[in-house]
Structure formats: structure tokens, C-alpha cells
Amino acid sequence: MTYRMLDDGPLRISSRRVNLGVQMNAKIEPDRIVVATIMAPDSPARWFGGPFDDECVAVGRDEIDLRTTGPVTVTAVAVDTKGLHSFSKAPDAAILADRLAKCGVLRKPIPSSRLRAALRSACSISRSATRPVHGNLIPLLSETLDELDRYAVERAPSLNARFAAVRACEAYMREHLDSTVTLLDLSRVSCVRSRSLINAFEAITGYSPMDYLKRLRLSGARRALQRANPHETRVIDVAADWGFWHMGHFTASYRAMFDETPSRTLRHE
Questions:
Q1: Domain of 199?
Q2: Into how many domains does the chain fold?
Q3: Which partner from 46, 96, 177, 258 sits 20 to 30 angstroms from 250, CA to CA?
Q4: Which tens digit of pLDDT belongs to each residue from 18-32?
Q5: Alpha carbon of 256 to those of 15, 56, 119, 137, 261: distances in Å?
Q6: Helix (H) or strand (E) holding 43
């Protein structure tokens, strides 16, 4: 993973490239609005369960939820709305502040491409550089978010229900990573029938519920191996801690997901 970030006045600009499928779920700081674009040529991506691709710009407050099943580059800017209101030097600051009051996914291919290029260019600037970038980015953001109501992609009520079911199951999975979790358990937690729950997971995450749970456990095992002392830790013990009892299956699944063996991760190579 590569990550670059630039603080520039009322804007915090970032570019993150991830080589594997990713779930980004995080709270947004108070008084900040996130505007995000992506490049995910090899896999579908979803923003709060809705389709999200390189022709889209997402605007979110309170939290973000982005999921992909393959490599992705995310470029984003977190706008300090309080700082923006008091920032009078850049053109269109007041207009941008007004447009950031709305959230959604905006599908406008050319503005999306222009904004993505501008954000990536801004992140390439040295942290020691004195040349501000917000003077150009604020008007571009304002122009990109023009007609947000007209072009925004709304989520259907059925998708909202699917997303809520998946979120409930995710919370249950994380609380029971060291226990046996069945599809029936997840159906009970989410109050959704098993077949509908499978459809919801495949629509929101790209995986079945059990595949998603396995990926959570594999990710946990990987973090444990990365932190472990290779002279005092056995792969088989870490695998068991995360619910994997068949080493052949664990190693094959681990290699398929991370493109390396568990023992190599443990050796920190």
C-alpha cells in the first residue's frame, strides 16, 4: 500500500493505493466533509453499497464506507467546513461550502477525471513546499459538485435495507471471530432470510457471507503474524487462534488472498 497526504489550509488531501480488495469504513472528523474519487479498473467498487467507479465523485459526512474486491487507488479531500467559511482568499469558497451541505454519489465522468488528477498532483507536492494548492482546488471542487442534486445517484430503499443487514452481520462477525459462526446465526442477527442475506452480501461486498468472514479471519491472522516474533511463534498456533484448523486449507487461502505464504509473513520478508 502507498499513501500520500497533504494538509493545505482548509483541505486535507490524500491518495491511497491498495493492491488488494479493501474495506474502508471510518468516522469522519467533526466539521469535515469528504469528497472522494477512485480508480479501480479490475474490480467493482461500492460506496455505502451503491455502485462507485471512476466516473463518480462521492460526497460524505459522518462516515465513509468504501469496498472493492481488487486493487484500487482512492484520491480524496477532507474539507474543513468551519475553516472554509472563514477562508475568504480563495474564489468560490462560499459556493463550495453551500454545495457540501448535500451528500451523495455524483456521476460526471469529465469533472471526476479532472478532480482526480488535481488531487493526485497535489499529493505529489513536497510537504516542505510553500506553494498552496487550495487556491486552485476550491474552485475545481465547487465546479465539480455543481448540480449535485441533478446528477446524484440515489440508493434504492431495498439497497438501504441490504446495507443495514450487512452492517449488522459485520459487527457480529467481528465480535465472534474466534467462535463458530453459521449462516443461520447471521440470518438471525440481521433478521433477513439466508438466501436474501447471501444476495445482500454479494451485492454490497462482492463475497458470500462465509467468504467475507473467512477474509476477516485471514486479515486478522496476517496482522498477528506481522506483529509476532518469528523465533517464538508458530504459524499453526496463529492459524488456530483465528479459527483455522486445517493448515493446508489455511495456507492455500492465505496465499490466494495475500500472494505470499503465512511463514513468509511471519519471517517479515
A1: 156-206
A2: 3
A3: 46
A4: 877 777 888 898 889
A5: 26, 30, 33, 40, 9
A6: none
